[in-house]
């Protein structure tokens, strides 16, 4: 069954949804994906991202608030493959990824601002499953998020 488009969803339930106006790129092998929100907040450090994606995703979408930094990649093909292997539906990266060609072949939704080959530090700094805000839209852990080529909608 194909997922309802975000535009149709907005027409039917817009009053209960927030739409992200920031223009993310669709960089995964699946452009349409949805699921419950899980979160990581981190800045140029991706140890917590890897740690979370090593655990069962049960169809969730990991929203990574990297503060919008494009200086280092928070996800590469190895971390993205962990997400596939552990049953995550997708990633929304408010920041950069790398290995974009390989990530584009994976059965995973990946939205990110762009790419940069520079790697992130791995100290584990950051927070997990806290509400995060991207371009004025709050992503609460457990809220449902829907993504496709048009954009990102999340339950208010
Ligand atoms: O290890 C990293 O920082 C990210 C990466 O390159 C990968 O996931 O392949």
From TrEMBL:
Pfam family name, one: RraA-like
Keywords from the UniProt entry: Lyase, Magnesium, Metal-binding
Keyword Manganese: no
Record's keyword annotation contains Lyase: yes
Residues that hold substrate according to the record: 76-79, 98
The enzyme's E.C. designation: 4.1.1.112, 4.1.3.17
Gene Ontology MF term list: 4-hydroxy-4-methyl-2-oxoglutarate aldolase activity; metal ion binding; oxaloacetate decarboxylase activity; ribonuclease inhibitor activity
Protein name: 4-hydroxy-4-methyl-2-oxoglutarate aldolase
Cofactor entry: a divalent metal cation; Mg(2+)
Highest rank taxon of the organism: Bacteria
UniProt similarity note: Belongs to the class II aldolase/RraA-like family.
Function field: Catalyzes the aldol cleavage of 4-hydroxy-4-methyl-2-oxoglutarate (HMG) into 2 molecules of pyruvate. Also contains a secondary oxaloacetate (OAA) decarboxylase activity due to the common pyruvate enolate transition state formed following C-C bond cleavage in the retro-aldol and decarboxylation reactions.
CDD domains given in the database record: RraA_family
Catalytic activity: 4-hydroxy-4-methyl-2-oxoglutarate = 2 pyruvate; oxaloacetate + H(+) = pyruvate + CO2
Record-listed Mg(2+) binding positions: 99
InterPro entries: RraA, RraA/RraA-like, RraA/RraA-like_sf
Subunit composition and interactions: Homotrimer.
GO biological process, one term: regulation of RNA metabolic process
Top-level enzyme category: lyase
């Amino acid at each position: 069954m194909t997922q309802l488009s975000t535009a149709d969803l907005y027409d039917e339930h817009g009053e209960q949804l927030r739409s992200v106006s920031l223009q993310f790129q669709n960089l995964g092998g699946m452009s349409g994906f949805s699921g419950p929100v899980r979160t990581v907040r981190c800045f140029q450090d991706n140890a917590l991202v890897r740690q979370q994606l090593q655990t069962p995703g049960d169809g969730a979408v990991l929203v990574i608030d990297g503060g919008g930094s494009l200086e280092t990649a928070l996800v590469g093909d190895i971390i993205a493959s962990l997400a596939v292997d552990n049953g995550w539906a997708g990633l929304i990266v408010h920041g950069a990824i790398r290995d974009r060609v390989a990530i584009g072949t994976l059965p995973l939704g990946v939205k990110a601002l762009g790419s940069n080959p520079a790697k992130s530090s791995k100290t584990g700094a950051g927070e997990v499953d806290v509400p995060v805000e991207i371009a004025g839209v709050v992503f609460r852990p457990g809220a449902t998020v829907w993504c496709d080529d048009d954009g990102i909608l999340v339950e208010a």
